[in-house]
Amino acid sequence: MVLALYASHPSQSLGRRYPEIPAPTRSEFQRDRDRIIHSTAFRRLVYKTQVFLNHEGDLFRTRLTHSLEVAQLGRSVGRSLGLDEDLIEAIALAHDLGHTPFGHAGQDVLDECMKAHGGFEHNLQSLRVVDKLEQRYPAFDGLNLCFETREGILKHCAKRNAQFLEAAEPGGVAARFLNGGQASLEAQLCNLADEVAYNAHDIDDGVRSGLLELEQLEEVPLVQRFLRQALAEYPALQGKRLLFETIRRMLSAQVYDLIASTDAALKTAQVESADAVRKAGPLVCFSAEMRAASAELKRFLFAKLYRHPQVQDTRIRAEKVLRDLFAIYTAEPQQLPSDFAGAPDAPRACADYIAGMTDRFALREHHRLTGQTLF
Predict the structure, then answer these.
(1) Which part of the chain is the HD domain (predicted)?
(2) pTM exceeding the 0.90 threshold for the entire prediction
């Protein structure tokens, strides 16, 4: 495939932190994707959950399936826009590597526990995983990924953390959070693909779980539109087939809107290089109408699913598991594996260890250390 001028071209990559001889059969971004897939942190994603825990059902999304869905959506859109699909896939597959067990509840607890020690951000943790915590190579820590992949992984970053990163790596992946620049188009696309995938699969999982009713979704104009379209074409459609057809149509509409709106923004901006993209405003976007509809869907899911009493009950118990683990590990560092027990920054080592856990390992560790069974 011929890449557009504004795409991130692997031959023009800003490079790796540790120089390496190029691979003979793969581009730099293909190489990054392969390293991510073979990482330990990537394998753990299969047992890290989104909204529902593993024991609540075998068919709910996990961080792994979510990352695959983001990669699929991103590649589909990226192909239409002439972007580098391998870079998109690498960013999508790595963007949740730093997520804690038990979804966002885990991040909130670790941020609370680490408040006096720099806090905790899962995007920053994902970068920390690929830059430091993976230990697969003799010459360096981490995976030594390209600048463009690392830039895309660091989706958000608080100013304090950006300043810390910038001091260690001047002009590096955190610079844009301080100078108002933008990430590559591939990174911008992964951000929106992440949002699209979240909304679609949380509708699916919410109905599958019984916490949402299909009829409730008619309150949301974006869903109602495609639900009625599906019924107009297939009047007898019901149950999961109706749900799947509604979601499929909604996803397609969002993808086509994203392609058209981004294409228009690119033509208006007249960017002709990846460097010019970084100096322009955000270019990967929805139309104003689709952005508003997507935001309304997100508000609905927040109120009806993420704050559902059953989800909240699970969250409270998950938070206790991680608070207890952090307290025990900081008080008794000998309980940590040797790789973490002797670290000079003990609280950060505890956070690294806990963040790397799968849901079920965290529950086993909590039971081992406290004798309690909370799930």
Answers:
(1) 63-199
(2) yes
